[in-house]
Each structure stands twice: as structure tokens, then as C-alpha cells.
Amino acid sequence: MQSLFPFDSRNQGSNNPTPNGGISPWEMIKQLLKTQINPGDFETWIAPLEGRLVKNSEIVVTVPNMDFYQVILDRFMERLERCKSDLKFDYLFRFEIRGESTTDSFFDDITQLENDDPPFEETVGEEKDQTNVEGTNTVSRALTLHSQLNSEYTFGSFVNGPSNQFAHASCLAVADAPGQNYNPLFLYGSTGLGKTHLLHAVGNKVLGKEGSPVITYITSERFMNEMIYCLRFNKMWDFRRKYRNCDVLLVDDIQFISGKERTQEEFFHTFNALYEAKKQIVVTSDIFPQDIPDIEDRLRNRFQWGLIADIQPPDVEHRVAILMNKAEKQSISLSSSVAEYIATHAKGSVRVLEGALRRVIAFAALQGRRIDIQLASEILQDVLGDTQTKSVTIETIQRIVSDHFKLRIIDLKSKKRQRAFSVPRQIAMYLARHRTQSSFPEIGASFGGKDHTTVMHAVKKIEKSRVKDIDLRTNLETIERKLDQIS
After folding, report:
1. CA distance 279 to 224
2. Within-domain flag for 348
3. From 262's CA, which of 44, 76, 233, 243 has a CA 20 to 30 Å away?
């Protein structure tokens, strides 16, 4: 390695920016990297990069755009670090996005955070100096300042209806006054119902306010990946600075931090720092906070400090409105009868609904046919056979109730009268009556041959007790949410 790229590490402290007879450190790193990756990747991603040595301490690399930078970060950053280490360079990588306006707000007025590692203090000062480069947007080596918001996801493009009205109103209130009323705002609901749309809508609306607010959108998976990267390369200062110095933090799919103890700990401290600074936090999840498994209680409690808003599956009228809105945006003529047919048959999430519409439009265009009910029926019969709503059965209810209370299904069907068995049995009977079309005798037969009067008594008792018994109501709501997810 040294024979190919001789470099005397003693020259690192000198003022000579080209320590190897005119070959810059960046060119040496590129040449070494060229021997380690395939030629196509090198010509596409590495060759266009321009680098310069600044203050003999940093290699500033200029990339064409943010997407290009993200590819470098995801695919080649580890190799770049390894090449730098092999050449015994002690420089810090920094990246500039060519052609974008400078974003100083992220670096200005950075307050000293408690428990941050002292070795990173000098780096912060150096990074702040670099933001004066005209016509560039300087970003941390490991993190991006780009908000990652989808500009198409706005409140104007969101179809409001009874199933999401409360969540929509909550997000709108948060966007109008971030950090003042509902903090944090926790959105939950099954996949494909519009949580991510509302999350981006909040960010886009706040982004339009005066004062250049800093909006950070992140998925929980990317939050974890960035944290792991910064831990590996000793850059937790950059990580904390990004997430603890924003005005609005938008976190999608928080349920994926389940079981990730280190990620939960870092998010906990990030949450506290933002909350105490009265910065807005909006989180989405597929499930209710109490139902997220393997998550610390202190974090679970913080999710419930503010407002929790759920999004339910849309009814037929709402689904028709969504279809008509999507068709109008694409300048497609869609009759209300066809929209109603699709809405009735393409059940499931809004994504399934939109997918059905796209298929109908595509088939009509390819076959030169008019969009009518006959065409829609032909397509839906072929591609949506597995997307119909699953009916909840007594067996399904018994399984979910027994899992919730950590019992065996045979215990629900037994004659055991201890409260640990009788209450879950009554809950299961109550849900079987309200969630299925089964009669009292049919339900009794499914619970070990119980008399229909026993079932009637169980249903009435649960109906009466759930009003005053908080524990019972909590258990019922949890089980009902699980049933909603499979129905």
C-alpha cells in the first residue's frame, strides 16, 4: 500500500496541502479506492467528486446534489474511511452540495449540550467556519441537512374524512403552532392509511413559515442506522447536533425501535432535549404506544405526554372521495359508479385502493377501452382476490384474547370460574357477539358447550363494567385494536 502511494505522516502538520509531490490527499484516496471497487461504480460515483484540503485538517468533497451525496454515504463512506486510514491520513471528511444556497441556520447559535464528548468541540467551530463558502450547502460528513420532505404530501392534497378527521385537525393545529399545544403528537393506525402523508404535511406547512425553521424528517430505521454509523466513526456529536437542534422532529414508524436498546436510549435523550426546548415532536406508528413490544416504559410514557390521534380505515364514501381526487389529479375521467365499485371491492389500506385505480387506468390505456364497471370488475377479480377484508371469527377472537391474557384457548372453553379465567372468557364472548354474526347459542357452543344464557350474561356484564372499570376498558381497547389490524 505504501509503495503505491508513499506518504510521510510527518507532513500532516505542515502547510503544504499536497504532501506527495503535487498529488493531493483526496486524489491519493481516489486512486486507492479505484483499486477496490468495480470500474463502473468508480466512474459513476467517485470520479465526479472534487476534493480539496482545507486548513490541513479537513478534506472538503463537493458532490453534485443531495441524492448523489446520499449514495456516497450509504455505499462508499466506509471504504473512503478505510482508504484514509490505510494512507495514515488524519483528515476529517466534509461534503459540500454544489449549487445550493448556504444553510447557516443549522450551525448558528449551537448551544453546548450536556454530556457531549469534549473532543468534538473544536470540530464544531471548524464546521461553522466552513458554512461561509458562497453558493454551497455544507453538511456533516455523516448526516444530511436536507429535510427529506415530499413536497407533494401537503394538507391540500390530503383527502379528509370521518376516519382521519381528528388526526388531520391535530396535525394542522401542530403545524400552525409548533411546540405549543400538542407535544408530542403521536399518530397511529394501520399501514397505508395516510400517517406518512400527514407527517410530511406538517413539515411542509412549517417549512413555509418565516424564520427558516429547521425540519428534520427521519424514519426510525434511518435514525438507528445513522446512530450506528456515528458510533462507529466517533461522530456522535454530529448526530446529536442534527437531532437536538431542529425546530420540528418528524419520526416515521417508531415501532421499529422495538428491542433496540441503544437506539431507544439515544431517542429518549433526544426527545427530552427537544421537549425541554419546546420544539415540536411528531411520531407515527402502526400500533398504539402501549402495544409496542420491547420498548422502555419511560419512552412509552413520553409518547403519551401529548396527544394521541388514531387513523381508522376509511368508509366507502371516503374511499370514493379519495379515488375521485386521485383521478382528478391525473386528469382521468372517472364516474362515481366506477369509483364506488372500486371502493367497495378494493378493500384494505388506501395504498391498495390507489393501486387498484392505477391498474384500472393502466389497463384502459393499454387496451384502448373506456373505464367502466365491466373493465373494473375484470381487473379486480384477477388482482384483488387476496385483498378482501378478512372476517373475524370466533376462533380468531379466542386466539387473540388467550394470547393477550397469556392463557390457553382450552382455558377459555373450560368451566374454571377463577377470575383469571372467567373475565377473559367473558371478554371473548362479548367480542364474539359484537364482532361476528354468530348467535348466542353458536357462541356458547364454541366455548365448550356453554348455555346461551351464560353468553348473554357475559355480554351484559362486560357492556356494563367497561364504562367504569378502567383496567377492563384498557384490555378491551387493546384487543379490539389487534382485531382491527387483521380485519
Report:
1. 21
2. yes
3. 76
Q: What is the CATH number of the domain that holds 337?
A: 1.10.8.60
pLDDT in tens, 250-297: 999 998 888 888 999 999 999 998 998 899 999 999 888 888 888 888
Confirm if 33 and 83 have CB atoms less than 8 A apart. yes
Number of structural domains found in the chain: 4
The β-bridge relationship of strands 248-252 and 92-98 is unpaired
The answer to whether position 157 is within a domain reads: no
Domain boundary among 310, 344, 371: 310
Find cell 386521485 and name the residue.
Answer: 326
Asked if 187 and 282 count as a contact pair (C-beta separation under 8 A), the reply is: yes
pLDDT in tens, 136-180: 333 333 344 455 788 888 898 888 888 888 999 999 999 998 988
Tell me: pLDDT of 339 over 50: yes
What distance in Å separates the CA atoms of residue 172 and residue 356, rounded to the nearest whole number? Answer: 29
343, 438: one domain: no
Residue 161: phi and psi, rounded to 5, are: -160, 180
Cα–Cα distance, 193 to 263 (Å, whole number): 26
pTM over 0.90: no
| 371 and 413 both lie in a single domain | no
